[in-house]
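the two lines:
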Amino acid sequence: MTRIFAALGAALLCVSGGAAGSLPGVDQAVVERDAMPPKLSAFGLFRGNDPKTPATGIGYTLRAPLFSDYTDKHRFISIPTGTKAKVGSDGVIEFPVGTVLVKSFGWSDVNGGRPVETRLLIRRASGWTALPYIWDADGKDATLALGGRRVPVTFKSPDGETHSIRYAVPNKNQCKECHSLAGEIVPIGPKVRNFILDPASDKLRSVYFENPAALKPTMPQWDDPKSGSVATRARAYLDVNCAHCHNPAGSASNSGLFLRWTDDPTGVNFGVGKRPTAAGRGSGGMEFAIAPGDPAHSFLIYRLESTDPGIAMPEVGRSTVHKEGAALLRQWIAEMPKASH
Amino acid sequence: MRFHGLRHAATLCIVAGFAASPAAAKLISVNATTPDANEKLQEALILAQPGDVVQLGAGVWKLTDGLSLDVANVTVRGAGAGEGGSILDFAGQQGAGEGLLVTADDVFLTEFAVLNTKGDGIKSKGADRIVYHKLRVEWTAGPKETNGAYGIYPVESTDVLIDSVYVRGASDAGIYVGQSKNIVVRDSIATENVAGIEIENSYDADVHDNVATKNTGGILVFDLPSLPMQGGHNVRVFENIVNDNSTPNFAPKGNIVASVPTGTGVLIMANRNVEIFDNVFDQNGTANVMIVGYRYEHKDPKYQPLPKQIVVRGNQHGKAGYAPKFPGGDMIAAAMGGAIPPILWDGAGDAVVLDKVGVLSLNLPDVKTPQSEAKPSPADLSKGTPPAALPVIKLPDTMEAKVR
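prediction for all of em together
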């Protein structure tokens, strides 16, 4: 994946090379107070408020990222000085109060690679809070956009195709729609099975983690055939792109379609031979979410390949089709034995 | 029969007086003509505090993205659901699976319209004690397969009140209540939907004083397998007008309602303890009442596919059964002199029918037997002992007070 912030690794190494989090910058009072600052700069998360230079913290990527209109995402985590994250026995990373997950979204060929938006997921005493910020035209600061916004952009996807879309910056509630578990906001990406520290940050794993040895990703890299079979890579893709809603405590709990890495991939509840529940037009006239051996009659594919809001899945965060992801899932379904349902 | 409630439904388009808000509550007014109205309205819905009223100005709101509300005990109130009221127009919608999504408890939605959404109209999920009142959800071009699926769509909720709403054009169900408990749907009009009103995988519902007309099927009580909540039971369908449900089925194939025959009045599938009483039926070409098992293949050992302890009594039956739109229906009708009886049973499970009209059984007690092996014959279901009458559904007083 293209990195829009080539300087990042070096910057992190530089700012974090000394004692953990000892450099001034992040205003923990602002982070931890129950407030929604109108400007991103209030948090002090970046040096000089330049999104290329995080003030502190560790950078990370994911084995399978959530597709967001081919944006390059730059992620880092700010963990308060003197505290550590912990990998739980269930593989969920528990972050201390005062942690901020920072994710900037942009394209290398839009705005000279500067991000369009930066989303914060803040761990406060009351729980996680999601705040979306859109970078101002002058690029000097970003402004809170609680109600979300459509931003017209034109970019090229990896296959060279030009896309002109009205990119949707999610509103605060839409952040929660995806980040919701039993009605509470939770991070999606940083689960140990999916989580990779950037090389520069990896040296700091014992500074920021109580049990650094537990940081061992188990999912394959979704787009690297050497890392796993088509089926396991497809399941990794579904886990990250779908299972945040499609789990028994998520926003799509009522669908009965559960696509977590840990779910039985042969079962009806994984979509195999599953009839539509509340799909409406999303069924595309097909009988099953997944018809083994027959991707052309699997409406899971139909929904992934649509951008019509009445059909498309996921329901938020996508105005283009992720061709490479859909191709992987097509191959996975095509290779399923037809008789298995 | 008690039809006073229908008067309310029929006067839906008349602007009602503005109810007083609690003293502590803020009134947040948003205008349809504000620049960035979509963003401003969404912000208001995010910044509202419990107890607040978000007041939608009169006019047509041109919205491009779905709205959502995640704050408990908020009222969203418009200036009316008809002409001149607060019209949320989603014809240009670019994102989100519904027009308005509610995910908090004790929310009150009243006096506005949601039009032409790409997906569902108004959805509430895990939103207990929600009240839908004097709303209109409509696809204004009438029945089309490209319309959204559900008009009003509460799911996974306890205590649901749908009162005096009008829903037209849904390509699945106009009013759809799924996987919920303690439900009242009353004084509402559902027309030109595939299913007018549908209660699915739910417990304890009263559906009464509604008009379900010109749908494919008027009122459906369903239970489906492989869902988190199933075993639908205790549903009363009473004092409704269910007539002329003659719109050809326009549901996208694959969806369960795509199998509903045009001309169905009330259809009960795989539930137990359902009472159908004191309704007025007329002009339902397939049947006024259909009672069937779930006849599709499934792999859910916990699922109960049969209708059980169904009671049909005290209904008025007008013309029915003259155009039965299930496979072989026309031949059976021809053999029976042009029409089949107004009540159709596939022969699975059990039912007591006390109405003085005929019942046609397809004699398919095993849901695994294909329908092609039907051996239709008249059946007498009047001899059974009906189970004890179901209790009236009572909603919390706080909910009833909102619509009083």
